[in-house]
Design a protein that fits this description.
By secondary structure, this protein is an alpha+beta fold. The chain contains 11 helices and 10 strands.
């Protein structure tokens, strides 16, 4: 179903036996512009980013003129840019007179958007404080029952040789238009490289291209000296590349499988986990999971 279909589900505007989608579309776009919730009403929900799915849920509440909005760990699967965007949306909704119940364990987010904070620990009420009169240290002590150190000692990075070389890659999106254009960068051993950008600017397609979920239109990817531009996802995994997706439920895990079966999803074909007839060695899988 589309974004529009999901928003109006249950409160569809009708005239006789016919849906008045044009009327619904107009209201959704007005809400989208008013609250800066950018969505494509015709996009299929399963194909859009987690951030856009969340904006769709917010628009669903606004479409129904709800006055109390409950956000339950809303930033759990969002990128840094999407979190910043959501914080601004929540502040805007509060200014409009909406009441928001924000459930979170992330102290910086609580301090940024909340006016008051009630802390629960082990299912029991600990206390309520005004955020302007407290700080992250005091909140963390209320949450865990002891003082927590926020000082992190980090030595200067000492990166080694180049492990990953991305040379001038171009990747097309679902609409066949180039969304990643002539991108190049290197990643060295022991180094953390950040790909920054606002949702919808090619980050997802870039990662899909690197991991093999999307084909490269042009360019080259070299991993530890081997050209893996046209290699299969399994081959890239064997060579040492792993992908932790932004939506782990949708793209990272098989939710109906056990933890041990999920752990060997990329290794089940190895001789220690299955024989030549494809029969799994359950004991070896269990031992691997318990390590």
């Amino acid at each position: 179903f589309s974004v529009l279909d999901n928003i109006i589900l249950g409160v569809e505007p009708t005239q006789g036996l016919f849906l008045k989608k044009d009327e619904a579309r107009k209201k959704i776009m007005e809400l989208s512009q008013k609250y800066h919730l950018a969505v494509d009403p015709d996009a299929i929900v399963e194909n859009i980013t987690v951030g856009m799915q969340q904006r769709t849920e917010i628009l669903k509440m606004l479409y129904r003129d709800n006055e109390i909005l409950i956000f339950d760990e809303p930033t759990a699967v969002l990128t840094v840019q999407e979190i910043a965007e959501l914080m601004n949306i929540m502040k805007g909704l509060a200014k409009e007179g909406k009441s928001i119940l924000f459930i979170s364990h992330k102290l910086n987010e609580i301090m940024e958007v909340a006016d008051r904070c009630t802390v629960l620990r082990k299912g029991k009420y600990v206390g309520t404080v005004e955020t302007k009169n407290t700080d992250p240290q005091k909140l963390s002590a209320m949450m865990v029952g002891r003082n927590v150190s926020f000082n992190v000692e980090k030595k200067p990075a000492e990166p080694g040789e180049t492990i990953l070389e991305v040379d001038n890659i171009t990747i097309a999106g679902h609409n066949k238009k180039d969304v990643v254009k002539n991108v190049s960068f290197n990643v060295r051993r022991g180094e953390i490289v950040c790909i920054a950008g606002i949702d919808g600017n090619g980050q997802t397609e870039l990662i899909y291209g690197l991991s093999g979920l999307e084909p490269l239109k042009s360019g080259k990817i070299v991993l530890k000296g081997d050209d893996i531009s046209r290699e299969s996802i399994r081959r890239k995994s064997i060579l040492g590349m792993s992908h932790i997706p932004e939506d782990r439920h949708k793209h990272g895990l098989v939710l109906d499988y056990s933890l041990e079966d999920n752990l060997v999803l990329v290794k089940y074909f190895e001789p220690r986990f299955s024989n030549r007839f494809g029969i799994l060695n359950r004991k070896e899988i269990r031992d691997y999971a318990n390590r």
